[in-house]
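Subject: Sanity check before I submit

Could someone independently write out the structure tokens for this chain? I want to compare against mine line by line before I put it in a report. The sequence has 249 residues.
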Amino acid sequence: MDEFAGKIVIVTGAASGIGLAAAQKFLERGATVFGFDKNEEGLKAVKGLVPCVADMRDHDRLKAIVDDILKSHKTIHVLVNCAGMSYYTRHVDSTLEEWRTTLAINLEAYYVMAKLVVPGMIASGGGRIVNVSSTQSIASEPTVGAYSASKGGVGAWTRTLAVDLSQYGILVNAVAPGCIKTAMSFIDGVDETETDDFKEWYVKRRKIPLARPGRPEEVANAIVFLSGDSCTYITGHTLVVDGGLTIAM
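---
Independent answer below. Compare away.
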């Protein structure tokens, strides 16, 4: 369980959900984990995590934190871009501010974090970047236009970055979670995975073939695999973690 001993890992969105589960998995495997999130209380509740309180839209703050990490540790071995958010509005009711905020957190911040850590990875001879996309980039629904666009961008950018950085020994991949039971499952105060419609359609009728929502740690396992020594010949790939949702008719 010490696969990541001596490794420096950054996880964004580490105070809850998939980011929290990923941070905990890395900690269990011996990594030094820096967790980025604006939720200071949530970060400080994670035993062993180095809390880095930041709004992912504050690029100066992100740079200052990463610079401090690099001063102490010279390089960052793994970057997990997981911070995310969504509005739930139909296009005619949506606003440009909602669109820009969603892309700023779900896509632009990923770019900024990669810009900050890649030079150190190049200098040290390699690294791993794992970006969190979504099955909403594959098959979507009416109220998540900006979110779907941002996650589609994550997948496309992941492929390009993988080609771009391959010569430096940096592997870049993504995971695309499906219906995962996290805080983002709650829409207007209701956990969508507990509704009658979800239980009827996704569980009873097996629109999700495994007939249940996923758990954050199940996505975290995929992230850890793509970040580790067992992943040596996979790059530019988006690993779908959805219980079969996107293959079911």
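---
OP: Matches mine. For the report I'm noting this point. Residues 29 and 208 are 31 Å apart (CA to CA).
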